[in-house]
């Protein structure tokens, strides 16, 4: 029988708690649920609460079938909030909004990565943050990503914008910038311009085009995730990788001091201590007082 637990007055079914999802570390589904409930619940929810969520599901672990879904999964409880979203192919489309701990635990029980856009419900296509996804092409690693991130930080500061970093949870780095609400198209155009400037300033390191033949040894500065239709891994989400790695916020001191590929790899078990030490390093993204206008 599937266990039923009560979370903030909601009845949530939790299944297969002893199932090993990450064989490399022996991490079970029960431990994954505990991670979301007890370790990061209070810090991930502000990054999820007002954004439609897309799920990358991996119910049998990262070595099993992976599939991406935007529509509410079959069997979604009536109490889970959904919101209308614009899609050219589906005028009646809706997506889940994870606004509370009960919804978070229901979603986590599906075994998912959480992905969110740069805009909030109620204002589709109007971004309140900008993202740069720094993706290294082998043999480049996160070390080279950090070098590009430092250049972008200074360039953004020249325009009065503050950047905050997190790992992708895979091999790269994400930079996030709080903005006053701005149409996504304008944010995308500005981000592309800075990606091109980065390539010009750092020709041996940075690349603004995705063409694979150009990628080896360089960092692709992916600005495309600022498109209203795109999403980025939500801060603190676990990733469908061989180990339970986290898309984890990092300090600028950590970025500056990064000297080896494994220096910025954080797993579920690392996060309680990091939160005790730093709190939510990305809290400014949810503070309207920190938002700045996009330069003209």
Provide keyphrases for this structure.
296 residues, alpha+beta, 6-stranded antiparallel β-sheet, 6-stranded mixed β-sheet, 7 helices, 26% helix, DNA ligase (ATP) activity, ligase
Verbal overview:
By secondary structure, this protein is of the alpha+beta class. The protein is 26% helix and 24% strand. The chain contains seven helices and 16 strands. The strands form four sheets. Strands 5, 6, 7, 8, 9 and 15 form a six-stranded antiparallel β-sheet that branches. A six-stranded mixed β-sheet has the order 13-14-10-12-11-16. Helix 1 runs antiparallel to helix 3. The longest helix has 18 residues, at 184-201. The radius of gyration is 19 Å and the shape is globular.
- Radius of gyration in whole Å, from Cα? 19 Å
Mean pLDDT: 95
Shape: globular
Biggest β-sheet strands, sense, barrel: 6 strands, antiparallel
In DSSP terms, counting alpha (H) and pi (I) runs of 4 or more, how many helices? 7
Order of helices and strands: EEEEHHEEEEHEEHEEHEEEEHH
Structural class: alpha+beta
Helix content: 25-40%
């Amino acid at each position: 029988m599937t266990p039923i637990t009560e979370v903030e007055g909601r009845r949530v079914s939790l299944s297969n708690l002893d199932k090993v999802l990450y064989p490399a570390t022996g991490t079970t589904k029960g431990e994954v649920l505990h991670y979301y409930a007890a370790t990061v619940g209070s810090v991930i929810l502000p990054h999820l609460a007002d954004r439609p969520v897309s799920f990358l599901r991996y119910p049998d672990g990262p070595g099993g079938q992976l599939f991406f879904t935007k529509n509410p999964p079959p069997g979604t409880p009536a109490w889970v909030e959904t919101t209308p979203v614009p899609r050219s192919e589906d005028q009646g489309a809706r997506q889940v909004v994870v606004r509370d701990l009960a919804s978070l635990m229901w979603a986590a029980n599906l075994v998912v990565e959480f992905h969110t856009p740069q805009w909030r419900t109620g204002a589709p296509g109007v971004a309140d943050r900008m993202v740069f996804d720094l993706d290294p092409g082998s043999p480049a690693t996160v070390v080279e990503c950090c070098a590009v991130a430092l250049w972008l930080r200074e360039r953004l500061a020249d325009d009065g914008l503050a950047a905050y970093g997190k790992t992708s949870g895979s091999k790269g780095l994400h930079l996030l910038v709080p903005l006053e609400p701005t149409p996504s198209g304008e944010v995308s155009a500005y981000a592309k311009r800075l990606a091109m400037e980065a390539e010009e300033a750092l020709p041996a390191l940075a690349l603004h085009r995705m063409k694979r033949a150009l990628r080896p040894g360089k960092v692709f500065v992916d600005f495309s995730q600022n498109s209203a239709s795109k999403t980025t891994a939500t801060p603190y989400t676990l990733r469908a990788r061989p180990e339970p790695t986290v898309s984890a916020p990092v300090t600028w001191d950590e970025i500056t001091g990064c000297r080896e590929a494994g220096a910025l790899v954080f797993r579920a078990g690392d996060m309680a201590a990091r939160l005790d030490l730093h709190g939510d390093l990305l809290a400014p993204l949810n503070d309207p007082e920190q938002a700045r206008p996009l330069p003209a």
